[in-house]
Amino acid sequence: MSDGNTIDMIHEDQLPGHESELEPKPDWEPRYPGSGRLQDKVALITGADSGIGRAVAALFAREGADIAILYLCEHDDAAKTKEIVEKEGRKAITIAGDIGEKDFCDRAVAEAVETLGGLDILVNNAGEQHPDDDITDITEQQLRRTFQTNIFGMFFMTQAARPHLKKGAAIINCTSITMYQGSKQLLDYSSTKGAITAFTRSLSENLVGDGIRVNAVAPGPIWTPLNPFGGQKPEKMKDFGKNTPMGRPGQPNEVAPSFLFLACEDASYMSGQVLHPNGGTVVGG
């Protein structure tokens, strides 16, 4: 599904955006000492260079995991995440590429397994969004690109990881509050998030008999590079997150603990479920 315009498409709104250029800086730091809940596990996290992915990498490392950091092209942000993981005393590798390409996913998983010694946790976090006022404004190229990253990428990563995942492994997918509420300016993005939730529930049914748990996290508005660098219209950013019951956007380190819970043995009786760190908005499912 790729062509010479793939990277241009991703960057049409400055996406995915550099966390190093974002002000104020998102809070990624874990809030408490680690307790070894992921000791000597290996986690592969897509979109781990910034935002929620960085916070998850930092928290997983504090809990004892080695991390494969997958990202598109923000090399400075990825290097920072690698440094964060290594300061926690864990191994980290960075792998740049487009998860919308199956060959890349196959190569990335192979590199992670060879370098870090296996794979225990897959976090499908990477995604993109492009706001449009009307469904007729969504180009065929944008529609294909959004689905390619957000849902095709999850299929490709999971297909590549599956042969390496053994009993006790965990897959955590990032869906969104927009799957439950809808979003009038994010029609294609919201549609992919609905697909991700269905994928999560169906994959759980497919793998639970093998002792592999599959769950998801559905964040609300979170302060990451995704929205300020083109994922929302500029005029909307001044009120970003203010429509939540808590009256503010969340921080990445307020979302990361949901991923940790679903990754570790604390969630041993949970599969096919979705957690909702969204500032107090009540949604179904």
TrEMBL record:
The answer to whether the entry has keyword Oxidoreductase is: yes
The GO terms this record gives for MF are: oxidoreductase activity, acting on CH-OH group of donors
Disordered: where is this region?
Answer: 1-34
Protein name in UniProt: NAD(P)-dependent oxidoreductase
Keywords (alphabetical) are:
Oxidoreductase
The answer to keyword Oxidoreductase applying to this record is yes
PROSITE patterns on file: ADH_SHORT (PS00061)
> What CDD domains does this protein map onto?
SDR_c1
List the biased-composition ranges (Basic and acidic residues): 9-30
**Could you say which protein family the record assigns here?**
Belongs to the short-chain dehydrogenases/reductases (SDR) family.
